[in-house]
Structures are given as structure tokens and as C-alpha cells.
Amino acid sequence: MVSARRLLGKLVYGSRYDKVPWGQRVYVRPGERLIREAQWRRLLRRSPIVEPEDYQARMPLGEIEEFIDCTLCGEPRMQPLYEPVGEDGKWRYHVVRCPSCGFLYRNPNIRPERLGDLYAKGYSKFLTGKYAANRQRRYQLTMDAFSPVFDDGAGRRLLDFGCGAGLFLELAEQRGFDAVGVDLSPDSVAQANERLTRGRAYLGAPEDVPEIAAGGFDVITLWSVLAHLPRPVDDFRRFRELLAPGGVLMILTVNANSLLLKAYESAWSGFTKNHLMFYSADTLPVLLRRTGFAGAGYAPFYGDTIEARTTNLPESLRARLRRTVQATDGGNMLRAMAFADEEAITRWSGPREVRRLRAEPAATKPAPLDLTGT
To answer: Which stretch of DSSP H or E encloses residue 323?
Structure first.
């Protein structure tokens, strides 16, 4: 059955853009950018800002959930915007916006000690099924986009945080990195270790593994992990401690400023069952600044098949896609590189622009990361 949205698109645009992947159509169809931006502004105008007491009084709280303030700035008030629902109706949650810093997050959120409940059973089957079919291609494209960071791993240590079934660790080995990973899914860790030849994946938190807890990593990667972290400030302080001088942290996550979010609202593909928080190029620097990073740079995301040129677009549409993505939100996925210090910026920034961050003074030492839910 054709949705009303797709039917309307057919009526307005005909079949001229049918060969453009659906994730990129909002960036190439004439006038759509203005429509989606206006749609977003209208949603913000019509959505009231509420006090936490009023919100909590009307909102059900699940067994493993808790109400939270804005993780980035501490603002207790919120602006309810979305209510994503799974296709089978077995899950739903509410997404709110911070009226002070614009951060989008799930509220109620998952209690950190119960995070493991989301991954205890069958998660590796998801990671190695349809989801994984083109993952390594996406990893390759992103590594190339952040050249020269991943060009040559010889003599360099890499930690893949949330390594899943080891699909990226396998590529890191091929590029010469001394690679290790951690994950909270037991069956995923087992599959990763079957895949690897030199590296190893561990179950649990970095501080549970002596060779990881010692730090000194040149690269830490978070592939589609950031949206899963309920206490990102503590986590990122730990990542900063684990990096060697000149080290970098690579982040791939869904983009909360995407035109697709503004178009599809609660039906946006970034609202998945286990996602907790949603970042953009405006809100991610707040997290990085608070946790001691010196700078941040970004690589636009044009779509996997577009970048790999397995989708053949006329050059006029390809150029329009590039212009719109670069002028607006950076694409449906947020690809970011966080630099530990000025040495890292000098060595690894390449041709991209780096946004310098004035780090806050170090606070008390963060509590150990608990990835197991125990």
C-alpha cells in the first residue's frame, strides 16, 4: 500500500527522481528543503515547553526507565516532539527537545544499570543479518572520508567501542592497526573473536580489561554507538583518558538535524528501538567541550550508494545533492572526528575545517563505564 506521503510526492514530482535513493530525495527535489525547514519551525512553534513535574505526572514509566534532565546542559524543562512506534507495535517511546541547547533525547530514558537488558539476547543476529549486509562498505567510505586518519594503521592502537560482531575490527586489522574491541552482547563478542586473526573483542567495560584500561590508544571508534549511551558525559571523559597524545575519536551516528527527520518526524529511520539520544553538529560540540576535547571536524554524508557510485545519478543531481547536504545538515548520518589535543588537529585534520573547542576544567574522575548492565 502506497503511503499518503509517497502518493503526494508522485503527484508533485512525477517519476523524475525515482532513481534517486529515498534517503537522498529530500536533498535533490526542488523546493523540498524549504518545505521541510518550514515544517520543522511549525512543529517547534506548536509544541509547548513543559515543566518536569507536569511531564512526569502524565507520562508512564517503564520498569527499566527513568526520567532525566537534559544530559548536555542540565535543563529540566523539555519540549515533547515525537513518539516513535515500532512496526510491530511492541515498542514505543517519547522524544523531547531541550529548550536551552536544542538537544533531542528519549524521555523517559533507560536506567544505565539496565542498559544490558536491551542487548542480552539475539542482538548479534540483528547485527549480522540485513543490517550488516553493507556495513563494511559504510566503514570503508567513512574511513576514506577521514583520510589520513585511517590510511595506515601500522604501529598504532585502535579501540572499537561497541564492536558488535567485529565487522569493523576486521577492516582495521587489514589496514595494519593493533585493534581491540569491547561490547555488551556476549554472542556478538564470540562472533567477533571468530572473525579476527590478531585482534580481540572483550565483553564488558574498558576498565575490566587491563590492556584497554591502560589507555594509550591512537584511535577510538564509535560506529552507530553514541545514540545508545545513557550517560555520554561520563563515557566521553573516559574516552578522552584512554586516548594517547595526538589521538582521535571517530563518531558515526544518526543526525538529529537531518532533513529526513524533519520530513518523516516520528517515522524517521533514526528512531530505532535501542536509540536513546540524538546528536547534531550543533549539539555534539557541547558534549566534546565538556569532556576535554580540543576540536571537532565533520565529513558530509551523501548516502552509501551515492558515495560508492553504485547508484548512477546524472551529474546535475549529484552536484545538487552535494550543495544541499553541505549547505544544510551534513546528511542523514553524522560523521564526526573529535581531536584530543592540538597535536591531533595538526596531524590528522587534513583538508577539513576544525571547530576549536574551549574545554572545561576536568571535574571529578568519572565512574567506570558499565556496559554489562550488571
So the answer is: helix 315-327
Q: Give the CA dihedral 225, 228, 231, 233, nearest 10 degrees.
A: 30
Nearest of 316, 290, 287 to residue 222 by alpha carbon: 287
Q: What percent of the chain has pLDDT over 90?
A: 79
- Polymer length of the chain: 374
**Per-residue pLDDT tens over the stretch 261-299:** 999 999 999 999 999 999 999 999 999 999 999 999 999
The residues of the chain that CATH labels 3.40.50.150 are 120-356
* Cβ-count burial 4-26 (b if 16+ within 10 Å, e if not): eeeeebeeebeeebeebeebbbb
Q: Would you state the pLDDT for residue 1?
A: 42
pLDDT band at 115 (very low <50, low <70, confident <90, very high): confident
Does the pLDDT of residue 60 top 70, yes or no?
yes
| CATH 3.40.50.150 assigned to 120-356 | yes
Helix %, strand %, coil % of the chain (to 5)? 40, 20, 45
User: Look-up: residue for cell 544499570?
Assistant: 113
Strand, helix or coil for residue 242: helix
Tell me the backbone φ, ψ of residue 253, rounded to 5 degrees: -150, 170
Averaged pLDDT score across all residues of the chain: 90
Residue ranges of the chain that CATH labels 2.20.25: 47-110
More confident residue, 2 or 147: 147
Q: How far is it, in rounded angstroms, from Cα 188 to Cα 194?
A: 10
C-alpha cell at 145: 572520508
For residue 220, the Cα-to-chain-centroid distance in whole angstroms is 14
Give the domain 47-110 fold: N-terminal domain of TfIIb (2.20.25)
Q: Name the packing angle between helices 167-174 and 135-145 (round to 10°).
A: 50
Task: Give the DSSP letter of residue 366.
Answer: P
Average pLDDT over residues 311-340: 94
